[in-house]
Amino acid sequence: MTRKSLLRRAALAALLLAAPVAGRAADKPIPVVISQAFQSMLYLPFYVAIDHGFFAQQGVEVDKETAGSPPSALSAVISGSADFSIHGPEWTAIAASKGAKVDIVANLVNGAAVWIAAAPDFQYDGVASLKGQRVVTGAMPTTSTSLFMKLAKEGGLDAKTDVDMIPVQIGSEPGPFLAGQAKVAVMYEPGLEQAVSRGMKVVVGFPKAYGPYAFSSLTARAGVDPDKAQRVVNALELAIRFMHTDKPATLAIARKEFPSLDPAVVDAAVTRMLAENVYPTSVQTTPEALTTAMQTQIALGNLAAQPDYAQFAVQTYVAKALQLP
Prior knowledge:
The protein has helices spanning about 5-20, 45-50, 55, 70-80, 90-95, 145-155, 175-180, 190-195, 205-210, 225-245, 245-255, 265-275, 285-300, 310, 315-320; strands at about 30-35, 60-65, 85, 100-110, 115-120, 135-140, 165-170, 185, 200-205, 210-220. By secondary structure, the chain is α/β, with parallel strands linked by helices.
């Protein structure tokens, strides 16, 4: 082989080594700001995407911001200070109904992640059992209390007059409940497992009662950078798949994200939400899940009508993410 041929082969090899590899993150990651309403166990797919490197794999560097409330997280997107926000899709639907150019681009929580717990000596025989009872609930507005009020209404009760609701800051429900201030509490995770670990029992599980329910979503402006959106949705899709195939690693990430909690409580909470299909099997928001979720808001008077699924639940990025190997 001539010296000229060797030089050509060496040059070709150098070019091949320098060429980007499909699925490998770019040398300079794309910065993306994602504003979450809270640091919540519900948003575990988001944390798995960060901690297990799925965002990095997609060439994205995420700046995670915690807004403190769904409206604040959504406002960050509307104002342009964040690229995406994570919270209940009802907030996005309400804003869109008022003219905001926002929609949802991915599903993060696909079950109504709310449970009603009761003291071990409380006899629960349906909604009528709650009449006249003191019930610890999250301070409105919150989906847990909204679902409880809807349940009461469907059972012939007015939650505001037939039940003595004790509203507390979201996440602090176990305190008064375990202290005996009420025999019933409406709870999210991990508060539910904290109560169960102290002998309380689950009497109502909204995930099983409602089935697919668009509970938390990824929101973006209508004019979001499509490349950013695709990379982010891809990463979330891979994270969700991972959660359903590697439970031990998923539990480890959850314990890392919530270091102040008893590891046993974290494990129990994640295990329950996986088993009850709270965490989705993909980033796709189905028409059924969106309709069920929005119906709760319509029943409570927070939303006038169902959003147009085709316009509101953007499938562009989801469709491509679902094709990932």
